[in-house]
Design brief:
The complex is a heterodimer.
Chain A lengths: L4 E12 L6 E12 L3 E5 L6 H8 L7 E6 L2 E2 L5 H5 L2 E4 L11 H6 L14 H13 L15 H14 L4 E4 L8 H18 L2 E5 L3 H7 L2 E5 L4 E4 L1 H6 L12 E4 L4 E4 L3
Parallel strand pairs in A: 3-8, 3-9, 6-7, 7-8
Antiparallel strand pairs in A: 1-2, 1-4, 4-5, 9-10, 11-12
Helix pairs in contact in A: 4-5
Chain B lengths: L2 H24 L7 H9 L6 H36 L11 H13 L18 H23 L3 H24 L3 H11 L8 H20 L1 H6 L4 H6 L4 H23 L5 H13 L4 H23 L10 H20 L5
Helix pairs in contact in B: 1-3, 1-13, 2-3, 3-8, 3-11, 3-12, 3-13, 4-5, 4-6, 4-7, 4-11, 5-6, 5-11, 8-11, 12-13, 12-14, 13-14
Classes of the chains: A alpha/beta, B mainly alpha.
Organism (chain A): Polaribacter marinus
InterPro entries (chain A): AAA+_ATPase (IPR003593), ABC_transporter-like_ATP-bd (IPR003439), Metal_Ion_Import_ABC (IPR050153), P-loop_NTPase (IPR027417)
Protein name (chain A): ABC transporter ATP-binding protein
Amino acid sequence: MCKNSILKIEKLSIGYHQKKQDKIVFSDINLSLEKNKLITVLGKNGIGKSTFLRTISKVQKPISGRILLNDKNISNYSEKELSTQLSLVLTERLPESQLTVFELVALGRQPYTNWIDKLSKEDIQKVELAIQQTEITHLKDNRFYELSDGQLQRVLIARALAQDTEIIILDEPTAHLDMHHTIKIFSLLKKLVKETSKTILISSHEVNLAIKLSDEIILFTDNNLYTGKPSQLISQNAFDNLFPKELINFNRTLEQFVINKN
Amino acid sequence: MENKSYTKYFLILSVLLIILFFLNISFGSVSIPFKDIFNSIFGGEVAKESWETIILNFRVPKAITAVLVGSGLSVCGLLMQTLFRNPLAGPFVLGISSGASLGVAILILGSSLFGGFLLSNSASNWSLPIAASLGAFLVLSAVIIAANKVRNTMSILIIGLMFGSLTSAVISVLAYFSEAAQIQQYLFWSFGSLGNLSWNEISVFFIIYIIGMLATVSIIKPLNSFLLGENYAKSLGINVKKSRNIILLITSLLTGVITAFSGPIAFIGLAVPHIARMIFTSSNHKILLPSVAIIGSIILLICDIIAQLPTSEFTLPINAITSLFGAPIVIWLLIRKKKIFI
């Protein structure tokens, strides 16, 4: 198992550094993620999913503990090195510019381009491939502000693909999307894991879909952190701790959450 | 695909720039035949010696100054709009020009408070630009120190604005205690002027300008990554803090030296990047940087021609012209286009 592991997290506490006392959001996170998997981070609002993803992608500092990417602590990676290992799709809105879809995806090649950002033949190939894999070829010359939320999400995934990293981390890629587009994004990610042997880590509120489509789940609950295959977590009754029980409950036979009757 | 039309626009604009440069030289309070203008620049026979002096020592330096100031301010505006991801940003938002104004105000208005030796009639031409540069540099240092203390780029914008109003307040206090003649002298400086630069001054100006422009070209890559926001830029391997400091330094240097030599010239820095984005419909800095520089030069040359009031003996303040003619054009462009970008 160790051989196949790409990301190892040891005794990690996440939160925010403050002057008087650090605000800890979640502590004692220990886990090891394997290559070539679709991993979904689940948990209710405010439990620390985003903080977790931001911490392991070095957007913010951990309170304590170690994050090892390919056996090297991410705090020892330079920004440049990390940019060839790990790419991001964030929830923040892009500033309003006139970038075309192609230009936006091509920005993913920045870690590899020269000082004036000239795209080599190989760069252009990788950009075109990413555009094909995410099925946005018809949008290539559009400005990104003309796109729908679902299309934009695929463009951002294409940008991360073009960055050619082993890991892609996506923070809530299905927020604001309808049911059809949510499933479309999930199956796209699933397909990418299969085709490109990348490790894709996402956070989501789509619990039912995540149980069906993820290879692994990291489940944040009030008292505990569960990791494992969806079936393992189901047999541990882990999902019972996800939400308060007055409105919805986890149904083990259906393997999904259902609304309580009356 | 679109490259062809970019080349076409660049060609048209470059030709326009050259035509306007010569047109600018041919207008002035003394009318000089075009043949003599041509001859004095390219070393031919000129009918009157005074004409040659006017062309070589006044009009050519002024036209060159217009090009340097116009392109420099526009590039600074582009840098600020990209850094702050705010279409309202311009070279003056950091309070740099207020700093330059403060330097000049202390020199002119403060002379009565601190003894008259600061600006006697015999003081060299250099005292104004030096005072302005010192003022700009002082505010710049304060802004950069503050910028490295705050995480959020938007806070820098507000800090810059605060420094701006602080220095304006100090200038008001100075003006209150000054005599009318000195206030008038300060007022004249604040009108802006492209003339009066000697070749010596222009060469100093030019060296700093070139340093600023080369530095700008060297950060095209981080500038483009900033179009996705700072977190994405960082994840693309860009050193955000370093790039931010370089942008601040370039802007301060260019705005400082421009304000020092030609006074605070409004509107150009804010508006030209928008005009360039509308013409080229691009946000890519490889396209925008040269186009912003050319369009900025063109617009300031036009404004200067208008300010000359051709064939009359009067010259209007350049600062008034840039806003009087520029602001309505930008308003019209924005209403027509409806959407603004960075």
